[in-house]
Amino acid sequence: MFTGKGGVGKTTCAAATALHHASSGDTLTISTDATPSLSHIFETADEQKPAQVLPSLYINELGEQEIKEMWDEKFGREVHEVFSAFVSIDYEEFVDFMTSVLPGLGEEFMVDYIRELSRKDLYENIVWDTAPLGQTLTLLQTPALLGNHLRMAPRIYSRLKLGRRSREPVLDILKRWEELSADNMIFLRNEVNFTMVTIPEALAVEQLEGIFRELHKYGLTVKQLIINNVVKTRDSDFLLTRASQQQAYLEHIYEKYSDLKIVELPMFPYELKGLDRLREVEKVLFP
Ligand SMILES: Nc1ncnc2c1ncn2[C@@H]1O[C@H](COP(=O)(O)OP(=O)(O)OP(=O)(O)O)[C@@H](O)[C@H]1O
Ligand SMILES: [Mg+2]
User: Fold this and answer.
1) Are 109 and 67 in contact (CB under 8 A)?
2) Which residues lie at CB < 5 A from ion ligand 2?
3) Is 7 in the pocket of ligand 1 (CB under 6 A)?
4) Which of 10-14, 138-142, 184-188 has the lowest mean pLDDT?
5) More exposed terminus of the chain, fewer Cβ within 10 Å: N or C?
6) pLDDT in tens, 159-186
7) How far does residue 276's CA lie from ligand 2's centre (Å)?
8) Which atom of ligand 1 is nearest to the CA of 15?
9) Ligand 1 and 31: CB distance under 6 A
């Protein structure tokens, strides 16, 4: 899983990593970012889901629609039945409401989807490109938040008069949901390798500490840190100035995160788009 603040190169690094792993087995790059960027970076026109980029490389960009389908499949009907006992609401409207209002419901199902995918063993590797950080953090908090909500829920729901329905099935549904939540957290903890992407600039470096703290709170550890956009050539005043500005931030990162595997990705003079360019990134990330 690639995480980090907006625009630091998560998708670029995720794509190059997927390209690398595709040479040793079927690899899926999955994106939980609402804006489709994987198809753009891989320059693929295949509109299937998942889309095939190379014989062993696939991409899948998950959006609102998929989340709704997941919710629908796992809980939608049951929970709707419970709710419709006291509120008159159409199923479609209810699903829209639930997926937009409940904190992190969408993200929870994203994690769940990826967990199920990894269980099915369809792919040797799954590379997970996330949305800019704000969303990633909600994503990580969701299972815990939902867990808290659910601990309260039985008390609330048990007071509702559900007409003909006994309250037992409702509690069963909630319990199943809570278990799902816990399983997702365990999955994130034990089976997902986190790679943090950053750039040697003030704001990005400042934010790093907070992100690490947040991840740590949930028992999640980052194994690798990629410092992107590092200026390596100094043959103009412009580059010299940029490089010397980056120096202090680089030193700070190396000092502070000495326990991590740190990889520097140079700033390229061109946009990193298409397989040939991604191969260049791959060479740096996997020397
Ligand atoms: N090392 C680099 N050298 C030159 N350009 C780069 C480098 N890394 C990334 N870019 C360019 O910067 C832009 C943003 O990169 P990318 O889309 O990978 O970032 P992101 O972290 O995924 O962004 P978002 O948070 O919006 O998802 C892209 O146009 C990409 O080509
Ligand atoms: Mg991206």
Assistant:
1) yes
2) 10-11, 37
3) yes
4) 138-142
5) C
6) 555 555 555 566 676 677 778 778 888 8
7) 19
8) 18
9) no
Distance 15 CA to ligand 2 centre (A): 10
**Nearest Cα to Cα of residue 179 among 49, 75, 36:** 75
| The two three-digit tokens of residue 102, written as one number | 């409940």
- Rounded distance, CA 123 to CA 45, Å? 22
The CA-atom distances, in angstroms, between 16 and each of 23, 83, 88, 275, 283 are 12, 45, 49, 9, 9
33 lines ligand 1 (CB under 6 A): yes
4, 266 Cβ separation under 8 angstroms: no
Task: Give the residue from 132, 278, 272 showing the smallest Cα distance to 196.
Answer: 132
